[in-house]
């Protein structure tokens, strides 16, 4: 089994690859458009009379006059390829990714209308703050910021990219429905996501899913009339093929990034559950919390699908099904509970007595 440090390094590499792929995607957005427009322009370039040369001496040429009645050949002189969109969109994409990532946590917390909690907060918020502090000490890491999401459905999430920018948020429904021990299990699960650096990877994916969807929607709204070209020229056909590939890439990018997020999310949920059991030494508390969360059977309306993989449970309640779906953000709740029961039995049989 991998150690925390190995998991952190693995997640760091994954995050780097995800960002590199996204920058490459932006470069392709520009390059594909440049190539499509270049070949389209070549197809519509009118042939011009070619210059005829004569050899005056070995290796030396001079422009020649055609004899009377001779037919002058024609040639196409297209403009040189200039990667204007490659540079502009590449720089724009890198800047947009950097800007979005630098404010990703704030953007997510604003989107779910979360309000901050501190040590002066009263009621369930105070208990939540204290539990986050306890679990941070148990995990040996700095305490993240604490937030409450105004939603009656029980759910929780962690978000952030670096120390000092990590946040744990829970819905009002979660704080009102769980006991202190159950809340410790849920918070330990979120703390495990931060400690394993899952949050960094999943927050990055959240931003990239959002940007991809934005670009796809923008391109889908733009109407490109390249299909009306009937010149039949090879350059025109090449330009059309490149444009079709470019268009498919853009339109399928949101689906590809979402599938990446789903794959990462499912794998990490099991690990965070196991880590939470280790932190609290009480897997039954998390089992009880997950049973209460799944018993709510409603949707967390405050949390959008783009942020679903940041939560402890699917905001759409899709994880209540017994069957694991390719497009679900979380493994089935029943399977997570079954694995936690196995962990609990293992702890009970351990020489230390659990």
From TrEMBL:
Residue ranges occupied by any Peptidase M48 domain in the UniProt entry: 129-341
Cofactor(s) annotated in UniProt: Zn(2+)
Pfam families: Peptidase_M48
Cofactor, how bound (note): Binds 1 zinc ion per subunit.
InterPro entries, A to Z: HtpX_protease, Peptidase_M48
Keywords: Cell membrane, Hydrolase, Membrane, Metal-binding, Metalloprotease, Protease, Transmembrane, Transmembrane helix, Zinc
Keyword Cytoplasm appears in the UniProt entry: no
Residue ranges of the TM segments: 17-39, 81-99, 201-220, 241-264
Family assignment from sequence similarity: Belongs to the peptidase M48 family.
Name under which the protein is recorded: M48 family metallopeptidase
Source organism of this protein record: Geomonas subterranea
């Amino acid at each position: 089994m991998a150690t925390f440090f190995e998991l952190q390094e693995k997640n760091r590499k994954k995050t780097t690859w995800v960002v590199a792929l996204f920058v490459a995607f932006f470069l392709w957005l520009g390059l594909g458009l440049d190539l499509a427009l270049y070949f389209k322009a070549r197809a519509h370039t009118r042939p011009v009379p070619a210059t005829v040369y004569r050899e005056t001496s070995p290796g030396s040429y001079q422009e020649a006059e055609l004899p009377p009645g001779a037919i002058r050949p024609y040639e196409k002189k297209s403009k040189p390829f200039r990667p204007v969109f490659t540079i502009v969109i590449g720089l724009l994409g890198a800047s947009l990714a950097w800007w979005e990532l630098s404010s990703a946590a704030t953007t997510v917390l604003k989107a779910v209308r979360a309000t901050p909690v501190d040590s002066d907060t009263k009621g369930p918020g105070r208990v939540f703050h204290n539990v986050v502090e306890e679990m941070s000490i148990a995990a040996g890491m700095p305490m993240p910021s604490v937030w409450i999401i105004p939603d009656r459905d029980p759910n929780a999430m962690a978000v952030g990219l670096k120390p000092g920018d990590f946040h744990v948020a829970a819905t009002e429904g979660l704080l009102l429905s769980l006991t202190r021990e159950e809340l410790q299990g849920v918070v330990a699960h979120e703390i495990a996501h931060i400690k394993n650096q899952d949050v960094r990877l999943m927050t990055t994916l959240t931003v990239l899913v959002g940007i991809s969807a934005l670009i796809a929607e923008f391109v889908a709204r733009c109407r490109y009339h390249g299909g009306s070209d009937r010149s039949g020229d090879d350059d025109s056909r090449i330009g059309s093929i490149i444009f079709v590939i470019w268009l498919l890439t853009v339109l399928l990018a949101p689906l590809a990034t979402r599938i990446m997020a789903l794959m990462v999310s499912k794998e990490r949920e099991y690990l965070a559950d196991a880590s939470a059991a280790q932190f609290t030494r009480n897997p039954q508390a998390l089992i009880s919390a997950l049973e209460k969360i799944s018993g709510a059977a409603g949707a967390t309306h405050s949390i959008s699908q783009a942020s679903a993989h940041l939560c402890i449970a699917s905001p759409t309640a899709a994880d209540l099904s017994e069957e694991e779906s390719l497009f679900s953000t979380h493994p089935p709740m029943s399977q997570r509970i079954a694995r936690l029961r196995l962990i609990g039995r293992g702890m009970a049989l351990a020489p230390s007595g659990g």
